[in-house]
Write a structure and sequence with these properties.
single chain, 5-stranded parallel beta sheet, 26 strands, globular
């Protein structure tokens, strides 16, 4: 055997070391060392596309110059493989060839639109929500998008706030589960071509805006912040969220964009978040308007030192950070940390290896024209529908029905089914969006005659169409009335002080009732609405929200029983605006109103305390029996668990799905606890007559809360356990004790 000299071995080991692949962190550090201060600050800037979003791309000369100079890190509102490629080609002409990130509000679908997020939350189907986010990511990433400004995980107890349509409702536990599922759906494995970076928003407590008014102040205790509003954000971190977005609001007097406690202490400190934080549109510059910063320079100083890494559209960083560094007010290490966070994501997405890997026209065409996406959207839309009333079992409609009157302002429009935050593509209002009329037409074919009348507009006082609607109703066996709010009456900057049904739509229903015909009311909305007369007098009400591009087919599936509705409300529906904020997990007070007793009780003298429809509520065409509740033990230590089992039986005439909800009440503690809290749920499918035994596990996590010192711990004591079909429809009860 030939002897190998020591010098040769040393040379081989040295070369092997050099050939080893560098880690992403090493690549980031190496690149950072080559960057000038101006190039670093450039990475912290995000501009919008100000060219025509669908016409020929004409780049603003100033932006083109900055992109080529390596002075821009990201763009938003650019979509399409051809357009993102053209912008990326400019970025690669820069000195260091650092690629751009392209971001877009892909909130509930790209081309294939799914139900608005609040509607999807009504499905209580976490797998479905993850799947819809996955399809949105597939379509968006194929169109050159790297990053979506979703999910919104703000908890909100105020339906006047227009952005409730974008979130998961009022409950922290449900909202946390949904946040986790949606981030997993959007991101998959970051760097795969079919994934986009998620952006968890709005950090934090935006949903608690005073008066339900968009962009308004938030004033809450730190305990309320930690217990109600922060857990969905923590779930997002646990799910691996790539980015966070600041909220517009101030919280307890400090704007979120300049809030060090939120960004440095909690997010990047206690939670060890490794991604980056982007401001909301112009929110850094708005620190001046808030009255928090003296000028734009001070705003930039406050935001960067608080932990805001990227400036969306305010130009505060672009115009001020370099001087702040030169004046030694902002350490270069602070700039470097923000830049590293952004560069790390660009490396993780594989953009340095191939800046154009997401800009592929062939892949885009295949993704946005995949027929399987529409099929899945149809199922998820049906899952999101909530049956509020069905007193005379008018639904499901018989397939022997020969004449159907379909009346209302929502029947034939297409765009309206998208809801707010639909991506503005050329194909809007084209054949891929199924109107409610088309859905019913597809369902009945030649077997039934469909009659149509608009009846009235969504808004306004014009009743000229009432008579035509009445005449059409009189010719039919059954009447379907589709009413609600316009798609752009819910969403950002769409707060409403009056959330009753708009216009004369409810008056139309009153006139149609006089015909004596069986009537099914469909309510289309992005928030809980108030419709007391309809709720009290119409036997059949279906809450359809805004269901997306397959709305018409999904609604028809439910109306005719091809899908048995299984949705449950993720928000409480008030009787009147005077009850707002209204939510199920409130405190009891020292003088609770029991059985609506009012004298010297916590109550209204002119209105019941109870909601019109409670959290977790929703009916089915079948019925379910709950029985045989068993606890593995009635005393547990913090280190132990209790297994809770029960039987659920389908006792009706249809196969169906039920959302079984587990609630707990901590009977007494060092701080007052809610009267009832959702702590787990399961959605299960049961055939006719079928029984399933399901199991929940109670652990110390479910019994813990934030005490006066903001310590998350449990306390020994007695707990009530409740299992039911909603927060008010409790079917089974038990109790147990937590001991030392």
């Amino acid at each position: 055997m030939k002897k190998i000299s020591f010098p040769f071995i040393l040379l081989f080991v040295t070369l092997l070391g050099f050939s080893q692949t560098k880690t992403i962190d090493q690549k980031v550090t190496e690149l950072l060392g080559k960057m000038t201060l101006e190039e670093k600050i450039g990475q912290l800037n995000q501009y919008t596309n100000d060219a025509n979003p669908t016409g020929p791309l004409v780049v603003n000369p100033n932006k083109e110059r900055e992109i080529k100079g390596g002075l821009l890190g990201s763009m938003l509102n650019v979509n399409g493989a051809d357009r993102t490629r053209k912008y990326q080609e400019l970025a690669i002409q820069s000195r260091l060839k650092i690629p751009l990130l392209f971001a877009l509000d892909v909130i509930h679908g790209y081309k294939t639109t799914f139900p608005i997020p609040l509607a999807e939350a009504a499905s209580w189907d976490l797998e479905a929500m993850e799947q819809s986010a996955r399809i949105a990511a597939i379509e968006a990433s194929a169109s050159g998008i790297h990053w979506t400004f979703a999910p919104m995980v703000d908890i909100s107890r105020d339906p006047r706030w227009g952005r409730v349509m974008e979130g998961a409702g009022e409950d922290t536990y449900l909202g946390s589960k949904i946040a986790f599922a949606r981030i997993k759906g959007f991101q998959g494995k970051l760097g795969d071509l079919n994934s986009v970076m998620a952006c968890t928003k709005h950090f934090a407590a935006y949903g608690a805006a005073t008066g339900g008014r968009e962009y308004n102040s938030v004033d809450i205790s730190n305990r309320m912040l930690w217990e109600v509003y922060l857990p969905p954000f923590k779930a997002a971190v646990d799910a691996g969220a790539a980015t966070f977005m600041n909220a517009f609001n101030d919280i307890n007097g400090i704007p979120a964009t300049a809030n060090k406690y939120l960004q440095r202490d909690i997010l990047k400190g206690k939670w060890n978040f490794k991604g980056f934080v982007v401001s909301d549109w112009g929110s850094i510059g708005e620190l001046v308007t808030h009255g928090y910063s003296k000028n734009d320079s001070e705003a930039a100083y406050s935001a960067i030192t608080a932990g805001s890494d990227m400036d969306m559209e305010s130009n505060s960083y672009r115009n001020n950070l370099a001087q702040l560094v030169k004046d030694k007010r902002v350490p270069i290490a602070t700039i470097d940390d923000a830049v590293k966070r952004i560069l790390r994501k660009k490396f993780e997405l594989g953009l340095f290896e191939d800046p154009f890997r997401y800009c592929n026209q062939e892949r885009q065409d295949a993704a946005i024209n995949n027929p399987e996406h529409a099929k899945i959207a149809r199922v998820i839309a049906a899952k999101s529908i909530v049956l509020l009333k069905n007193e005379r079992n008018i639904l499901p409609l018989s397939k022997e029905t020969k004449t159907i009157a379909f009346i209302g302002p929502m029947v034939k429009p297409k765009r309206i089914n998208h809801g707010f935050w639909a991506v503005n593509l050329k194909e809007v209002d084209s054949t891929y969006i199924v109107s409610q009329w088309e859905g019913l037409e597809n369902k009945v074919g030649k077997n039934a005659k469909l009659l149509y009348a608009k009846g009235c507009d969504i808004e306004g006082t014009n009743k000229a169409g009432f008579q035509e609607a009445i005449d059409i109703a009189n010719q039919s066996e059954v009447v379907i009335v589709s009413i609600g709010e316009r798609y752009n009456m819910s969403g950002e900057s769409k707060s409403r002080s009056n959330i009753h049904l708009p216009g004369v739509q409810e008056e139309l229903i009153k006139e149609l009732q006089k015909t004596g015909k069986p009537i099914v009311v469909l309510i289309n909305a992005g928030r809980p609405l108030i419709f007391n007369w309809t709720a009290d007098n119409m036997p059949t009400i279906v809450y359809t929200w805004w269901l997306g591009s397959e709305a018409g087919n999904a609604i028809a599936d439910v109306l005719f029983g091809d899908y048995n509705p299984s949705g449950k409300l993720p928000m409480t529906f008030p009787r009147e605006e005077g009850q707002i904020p209204i939510y199920y997990n409130h405190f009891n007070t020292g003088r609770p109103s029991i059985n609506e007793e009012k004298l010297y009780k916590s109550s209204y003298i002119d209105l019941p305390n109870t909601p019109k429809f409670p959290f977790g509520y929703g009916l089915s065409y079948t019925t379910f029996n709950y029985s045989n509740l068993k606890l593995s033990k009635t005393k547990m230590k913090a280190s132990e668990t209790i297994e809770v089992t029960m039987d659920i039986t389908n006792t009706g005439k249809y196969e169906g799905e039920e959302v079984v909800q587990l609630y707990l009440q901590d009977k007494y503690a060092s701080l007052i606890r809610p009267i009832i809290e959702l702590k787990d749920f399961q959605k299960l499918k049961l055939g006719i007559g079928q029984t399933k035994t399901i199991k929940f596990v109670i652990d110390n996590q479910k019994l813990s809360f934030y005490n006066e010192k903001l310590e998350f711990n449990s306390e020994p004591g007695d707990f009530n356990l409740m299992v039911g079909s909603s927060s008010e429809d409790i079917r089974l009860k038990s109790s147990f004790e937590l001991i030392k």
